[in-house]
Amino acid sequence: YIFSITFIISFLFLARAIRVANKESWSKKVANLATENAAVLHFYVQDFRAGGGPNATVYMVATSSISETSPTDFGEIHVCDDLLTTGPGLDSEIIGKVQGLTISTDFQVSGEAMYLNFYFTTGEYAGSSLTMLGRNEVMNEEREMPVVGGTGVFRLAHGYALSSTYSYDVERLYAVMEYTLYVSYVGKLDLHLVRSSFKSI
Q: Is pLDDT at 177 greater than 70 in this prediction?
């Protein structure tokens, strides 16, 4: 009786070990198929703040109790739906949109916490997106922020973005931002190869 129980327990541990080994083997096979790529993307963001004229693309949606008296507009939250263009002019080719939130989060300087999705609508990256999340000290000549993810072609993306203010029209509250993104990504896996790897285990 004791021998039977010992045999059953040993068998269960062995079966579990085999399942774990098979799972790890499949994971390694899939990982080997995920070749990392790299890209450098350069474009401009057309940013029209509400209050500067028609067709605004940025609106304030919330404030804090001290936003009106704060020299840095602390606590203001803006939501945007800006155009991405190949050049700084409004007549440049439109390649997508940047959508997200900017939040004034610094008491001393004009610093924003930014959550932005760059969504591409044309070209080889159409239907794909990149997500940028980080701190933007807007008065600096050049700002660096992390790229933390992506979709479509840019699955498992990571990298960084460099941003600068190309121009700013005070009367129209119209800014043109220049961006260069340096990203590594895996992209879309070949599902046929994944299935073949799974079957070979």
A: yes
CA-to-CA distance for 23 and 201, rounded, in angstroms? Answer: 9
Model-wide pTM > 0.85: no
Query: Do the beta carbons of residue 142 and residue 163 sit within 8 Å?
Result: yes
What is the residue-averaged pLDDT of the chain?
86
Query: Could you tell me which residues come within 8 angstroms of residue 34 by beta carbon, excluding any fewer than 6 positions away?
Result: 156, 186, 189
Q: Which two structure tokens, joined as six digits, stand for 86?
A: 């190949």
Alpha-helical segments (H) within 85-139: none
Residue with tokens 């959550």: 115
Distances (CA, A) of 31 to 20, 35, 150, 180, 186: 16, 8, 18, 29, 10
Both structure tokens of 21? 């080994």
- Return the number of other C-beta atoms located less than 10 Å from residue 143's C-beta: 21
Helix (H) or strand (E) holding 8: helix 2-33
Rounded Cα distance, 116 and 138, in Å: 15
The CA-based angle 150-175-69, given to 5 degrees, is 100
CA distance 126 to 136: 27
Task: Tell me the CB-side half-sphere exposure of residue 169, using CA atoms within 13 A.
Answer: 13
Task: Name the residue among 121, 123, 125, 136 with its Cα closest to residue 179.
Answer: 136
